[in-house]
Amino acid sequence: MLKELVLKNRSYRAFDESRPITERDMRELIELARFVPSGMNNQPLRYRIVSTPDELAKMHANTRYAAALSIQLPPEGQKPTGFIVMLRDSDVTSPEGLAQKDCGIAAQTILLAATEMGFGGCMIGSFDPVRLCADLSIGQRYKPLLVLALGTPAEKVVVEDANDQGNVIYYRDAENVHHVPKRKLEDILL
Ligand SMILES: Cc1cc2nc3c(=O)[nH]c(=O)nc-3n(C[C@H](O)[C@H](O)[C@H](O)COP(=O)(O)O)c2cc1C
Fold first, then answer.
1. How many independent structural domains does the chain possess?
2. pTM (2 decimals)?
3. Is residue 164 included in any domain, yes or no?
4. Residue 116 within a domain
């Protein structure tokens, strides 16, 4: 059921490092992303897989998680075991807005497929793009749009209805379960 997959596909920020996602797994995810819609069918997106220890360490140092929480995430020993960096190829003529939309569509498709494969991840917009390109030896032609942190989830995340005040700030309870309030249907229908 698609609904079950969508509900299971949460943003995970702690991973079981003993069950890593492999480069081959990530290639499979990107192979799927080839087929998603693209504005004007320009297909300006490019993907860079990160799976070696040296590059993983650089990505860990340049990604920020759950700014709304004052705890260290991911916890030590529970880091993502792979990253897919999503970039825009500036040699492909495409309006900036369309490339951003393409990126969202492809990112969600990749995460849904990863969830189906038993993995999970988190979209990361909080990184230094200049540092990322330097760390991964990516030329100026490519502009990083989004990072996908991936691995086997090792934490519990639940969605719940936002309260009547419309509070959508995520939080953790005493058992370290991560709660994500989502606005109710009647609050998002115009
Ligand atoms: C475009 C985008 C950028 C995001 N950037 C970050 C980020 O830098 N760090 C992070 O921990 N989560 C990031 N997230 C994850 C959101 O915090 C998360 O989607 C939100 O809290 C709702 O949780 P859910 O994905 O489980 O529904 C990002 C999500 C999106 C869609």
1. 1
2. 0.98
3. no
4. yes
